[in-house]
Amino acid sequence: AGFGNGQDPFSISRNIVHGQFGKGENYSSAHNETAYPTRLLVVRDPFSRLLASYLDKVYLPDFWSFEAKEIQRGRRECSSDFLRKHFEQMASKFQRTGQSYSTCSERMCAKYLTFAEFVEGSFQRQEPHWTPIHQICNPCAFKATHIVHLESFSQDVKPILAKMEMGHILNGMDQNKQVELEMDMLINYHFERIKEIEVYMFYRSCITLRELAYRLWQTFQWKGYIDPERTYIVPDDTYAESTIKNDLVTQVRRARESGLGKADLMVSARERFQAQVYQTLPKYLFENLMIKYKTDFQLFGYEDTRDSMYSSLYNSDLTETYTNLNSNQKNS
Question: What Gene Ontology terms describe what this protein does at the molecular function level (predicted)?
Answer without folding.
Answer: sulfotransferase activity
